TrEMBL record:
Pfam families: FAD_oxidored (PF12831), GGR_cat (PF22578). InterPro entries: FAD/NAD-bd_sf (IPR036188), Geranylgeranyl_Rdtase_fam (IPR011777), Geranylgeranyl_reductase (IPR050407), GGR_cat (IPR054715). It comes from the Archaea. Keywords: FAD, Flavoprotein, Lipid biosynthesis, Lipid metabolism, Oxidoreductase, Phospholipid biosynthesis, Phospholipid metabolism. This is NAD(P)/FAD-dependent oxidoreductase. One of its GO terms (biological process) is phospholipid biosynthetic process.
Length: 388
């Protein structure tokens, strides 16, 4: 079968690309390796209200596990400032299945159990081998997640750095409607821990860390905290998350990479849904222009890269600041936390500068540890910077 666009993966990025491509009149097919869209679930399942409104998502009630008030950042001594910005905890499988239904309703095709094993470009088309499905397409959009299928098969990019995310779904966990993010280096080296509440007392309790072989041990230690001790574990799930920022090449001849496959996750708290959905939309818009112009060259598709670079936050600077934050000891983190206001939303540049100068005056040694760089990275964790 011949298509204008073939998309690898039916997650948020692939679903968004397919939805917008179909709406723009492109003959579209989605190749999903699993038998059921949205399973298994890999992520913490959060999305900001800002993202929902910006992308005009009419998310059905069944896909929303809880509406939340914002994010609370909990430091080692339990000092806990908050960022008030509304959002949602999703039933991620329901969300992705709803998105797939929208894709089909717009006229695109969805092929399940279609794991891509071969890709070749010949005579201006992609020839894609996905098990029983043999597909030809003018444009290929890789939304295959951390597998990064085209980078692996075509040798397009080097493998990105990743962290492991692992979590329990637990019962009878108390909440006041905030996402709780714990910066506790001893239990999540170069990462963080979380409690993400859902309705009925359920919660995702987990962590991300670079120390992949110790992640389960860290998680079991974390759930000994008073708020989780003795709570029933329903299931455990997780996976790898890109952590080094966008790949060097996100476009090629007739090719665009979106979502995790492009390395699009928030470096601070590893949120990826908003970035995936938006990058999928960008890719579809560029694909429509390419089909209209009958031009699938890398130079023509370069406008996709220009779009996301203009829209998304400065990854390299955030990664540098995140790494600087990881260098602080528990005692230093506690000291910094006590200088912060309880509500972090109102911290404009001037207020950040005042707080930074106050901390520097009391602890000059923190300047050498790139205090201001870590402040900047922390600021980019907000929804308006695609933090979640």
């Amino acid at each position: 079968m011949n298509y204008d666009v073939a998309i690898i993966g039916a997650g948020p990025a692939g679903g968004s690309a397919a939805l917008h491509a179909a709406r723009l009149g492109l003959k579209t097919v989605v190749l999903e390796e699993h038998a059921v869209v949205g399973e298994p679930v890999h992520c913490g399942e959060c999305i900001s209200d800002l993202a929902v409104k910006k992308l005009e998502l009419n998310v059905p009630r069944k896909a929303i596990a809880m509406a939340v008030k914002g994010v609370r950042v909990i430091f080692p001594d339990r000092t806990a400032p908050v960022i008030d910005e509304a959002g949602y905890v999703l039933e991620k499988h329901e969300f992705e299945q709803w998105l797939a239904e929208e894709v089909i309703n717009e006229g695109a095709e969805l092929r399940l159990s279609s794991r891509v094993s071969g890709i070749e470009r010949s005579s201006g088309q992609w020839k894609i081998d996905a098990g029983n499905n043999k597909v030809n397409s003018k444009i290929l959009i890789d939304a295959s997640g951390v597998q990064a299928v085209t980078s692996r098969i075509l040798g397009l990019n080097q493998r990105f750095e990743s962290v492991i995310g692992i979590q329990h779904e637990m019962l009878d966990v108390e909440t006041d409607g905030y996402l709780d993010f714990y910066i506790w280096p001893k239990l999540a080296p170069k990462g963080y821990l979380w409690m993400i509440p859902k309705n009925g007392g359920r919660a995702n309790v987990g962590l991300v860390t670079h120390e992949k072989n110790k992640a389960k041990t860290f998680l079991e230690e974390f759930i000994k905290a008073p708020e989780f001790r003795g709570k029933k574990i329903v299931k455990t799930f997780g996976g790898l998350i890109p952590s080094s920022g966008p790949l060097e090449k996100t476009v090629g001849e007739g090719l665009m990479l979106v979502g995790d496959a492009a390395g699009f996750t928030s470096p601070m708290f590893e949120g990826g849904s908003h970035l995936g959905l938006q990058s999928g939309k960008f890719a579809a818009e560029v694909a429509a222009k390419a089909v209209q112009a009958n031009n699938f060259s890398r130079d023509f598709l370069q406008s996709y890269e220009e779009l996301w670079k203009a829209e998304f936050p400065p990854y390299r600077k955030i990664v540098e600041g995140r790494n600087d934050l990881y260098s602080f000891s528990d005692e230093e983190l506690n000291f910094i936390a006590k200088q912060l206001p309880q509500k972090l939303n109102g911290m404009n540049f001037f207020k950040k500068l005042v707080v930074g100068l106050k901390i520097s005056a009391k602890r000059p040694s923190l300047i050498k540890k790139e205090l201001f760089s870590s402040f900047r990275a922390f600021g980019y964790s907000q929804a308006r910077f695609y933090g979640w």
